[in-house]
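Input/output pair, single chain:
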Amino acid sequence: MCQGRQSCRRLSQSDLDAAKRRPNSCVITIDGRAYDVANFLCRHPGGALALENCRGQDASVQFSMYHPELVRKFLPTYCIGQIEPCELDDNVNEADNQPFSCGDVKHQQQQSPIVRDYFALRDKFHRMGLFQTKPTWELGLVLRILCLLAASVACVLCPPESAWPIRVVLAACILGIYLQQLAFVGHDLGHTAVTHNRLTDHRLAAFLGNALLGISIGWWKLNHNVHHLVTNSVTDDPDIQHMPLLAITDEFFSSPISTFYDGKRKPFFRLLMRVQHLVFYPVMCVARFTCTFAPTST
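Output:
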């Protein structure tokens, strides 16, 4: 039910198009209702760019995929009207799965085989209980991972001195396993998939990620949420933006803009790409530090 500034107002397609064109607006549609979320962009837990990528589109599927039902109680605040029913061609978007201009999740499920299969698989996993987590198991996992950190430190500090080079190499290997395993836990916390409480998982992620892993959970969420919305999009997905040092596809040469980092490709990028096979391993040696300092560049 719309209970926003224009309660239960009926919007025609022309009204909706006009609302989308208004300056400083960010209109999205969810389940047949239009919402202007411009004032919510900076407060969106998933980051402003996650909403920006849905600007002017039907975000019914995205909303249903990434939000629990309890979040729906916040929607009426931003509702600007109910969209009038419109005729949709049964063949529209079936091939390319692009967002609809009107409709709801159920209709999109009927139209898109990919969306339909996704929701069917998700419902099956829910029935199987695969999304249920055990906090005690997660706690045990974190303790085991911290033991790896302790073992790595012990390898460096403990005698004998004569075996110091071997111990340093062993410590580095153990530390690498520690970092990778802790990153998996941080990933689940960032997705609110451990306690299923957003604030609790965020605080735990801030401790494990920021303090013990050296990665800002706030920066990670901004990147990763957009990544899930526009996965492997050359211009929009920040998780594959490694320019100018690395290009994972030649499509980067024909794509001039990075929407996430708000930067244009420079002419010398192509020159650097010619030697990326030489700089790959040196770059990987310091890649961890880029995660630490990346928040200052975004």
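The chain is about 50% helix and 5% strand. Confidence is low (pLDDT under 50) at residues 87-107, 292-298.
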